[in-house]
Structure formats: C-alpha cells, structure tokens
Design goal:
The chain is an alpha/beta fold. It is 44% helix and 15% strand. The longest helix has 29 residues.
Length: 255
C-alpha cells in the first residue's frame, strides 16, 4: 500500500486476533507500530511474535486515565500517532432476558465507551498536530455486521456495534478535513479464540450460511485496515466497509 512506510500506527486490542494480524500487516508495510491491550500474557506473547513491534502497552480502555497515559507513552515511543486502529472489544453470548445489568455495563464500557475514549484522545492529538497541507490523520474503528442486522443472543454487543457505526460517521463529519475516519464491519472471522468455541460440526454449519462458505481470516481484515490507512484511500472517509463473504447480502446473518 502506498504511503504506509514509517507511518506511526497505534492498535487497541492489538495483542491477539484481528488486532495482532493488523499489527503484523502494518509492520510488513514498513510502519512503526505500538499496540494497546489489557491482556498481559497476550502482550508478552506478541512482543516475541513480532520483534519489530515498538511496544505492547497494557491498558484498560474503559479507564480514561489509563488511555491517556498509554497514548502519551505511544507518542513518546513513536514521536506521534498517524493512524489509530480502534479495535478493542468483547462479547458475551446470552439470551436477551438473561443479560444482567453488570454484563450490559461491561460490554458497553469496553465496546462503546472505551472506543470513544480512545478515539477522542487520538483525535485531539491529530487535530493539533496535522494541517491540511501536511496530510491527515486516520482513525479506523472495528464495527461488525452485528451492528447492521439482528443477531440473537448478542443484544448488548449488537447495540454497541451499531453505536460504533454512528460514532464513526459523526466523527468523520466533524474531524474532516484533517482526520479521515472509517469503520470496518467484519462478519464471521476465524480467530484462534473463535475456533476454540466451535466443534468441527458447528464450524461447518456456520460456514454453510456464508456465500463464500468460510470464515474470514484475521489477515484479510488486516489488509482492509491497511488499505484504508494508505494514500490509496486518501479520498475515503465516513464509510463503513463490510467484509463478510456475502453473508449480509441476502439476509443470512440472523438465520
């Protein structure tokens, strides 16, 4: 991708799954990368897996003070942040009537409030640092097809991802022309954590709902993030890019 060499990239939820694949992709593109993640073991693992990584900083995105401190550390290490991949998120599978107030608050606080904290901290830095002549910062957020169509057993998660989509559009309008903002909405992605939840039969059953008959690979989602951060996407902002193997094209998602 054009224009990614030496870009300073910060990725939340970056120590595993889509986040780790995205960190690896940006490093391949010649970018400088730091990741934020609350999982200490995963941070230690990715430091060994990606020796070119600037740092894996342990942070809970639901705590604004931790977010601001981690962002300041990333700026110190990379002398700024050009690209944010705002990716941290959790889900809890429950029937709607069984969701407890504590579970609701937990999902909302990570997936929506935490994303807001990180996005606003990054946007303030980029707005102050960049001018139209110098080029723009880029904020990319992980939404989901869950935020675009109904899925049973994930009401809290679905609500947060719908919120991420509208947050992205609103940010894009307010932060232009200095900062571009887009979201990626993956469908089913076969991360290592997701694979452990499936038996072979369950995996095949889900695959049969998807027109391309398989889950996405984390590396494929990472490729879309790389494109959206690159100079090739310089005229793209305020958009939500679905990457779901055709799942939502025919309304298959909720069956």
């Amino acid at each position: 991708m054009r224009g990614l060499k030496d870009k300073r990239v910060l990725i939340t939820g970056g120590a595993s799954g889509i986040g780790a694949a995205t960190a690896a992709r940006f490093l391949e593109e010649g970018s400088r990368v730091c990741v934020l993640d609350r999982d200490e073991k995963a941070c230690e693992h990715i430091r060994h897996e990606l020796p070119g990584l600037g740092e894996a900083i342990i942070v809970d995105v639901t705590d604004l003070m931790q977010v601001e401190a981690a962002f300041a550390e990333a700026i110190r290490l990379m002398d700024g942040v050009d690209v944010l991949v705002n990716n941290a998120g959790i889900s809890i599978r429950h029937k709607f009537l069984d969701i407890t107030p504590e579970e609701w608050e937990k999902v909302i606080s990570v997936n929506l409030t935490g994303m807001f904290y990180v996005a606003q901290t990054a946007a303030r830095h980029m707005w102050e640092r960049f001018s139209i002549k110098q080029g723009s910062g880029v904020i990319l957020q992980t939404a989901s097809t869950n935020g675009m169509t109904g899925y049973p057993y994930y009401a809290d998660y679905n609500a947060t991802k719908a919120g991420v989509i509208e947050l992205t559009r609103s940010m894009a309008l307010e932060l232009a022309p200095k900062v571009r903002v887009c979201a990626v909405a993956p469908g089913y992605v076969l991360t290592p954590m997701q694979r452990t939840e499936y038996s072979d039969a369950m995996l095949e059953e889900v695959n049969q709902k998807i027109p391309l008959r398989r889950h996405a690979k984390p590396e494929e989602i990472a490729g879309l993030f790389a494109y959206l951060a690159s100079d090739d996407a310089a005229y793209v902002t305020g958009q939500v890019f679905t990457m779901d193997g055709g799942e939502t094209a025919g309304g298959l998602a909720s069956r």
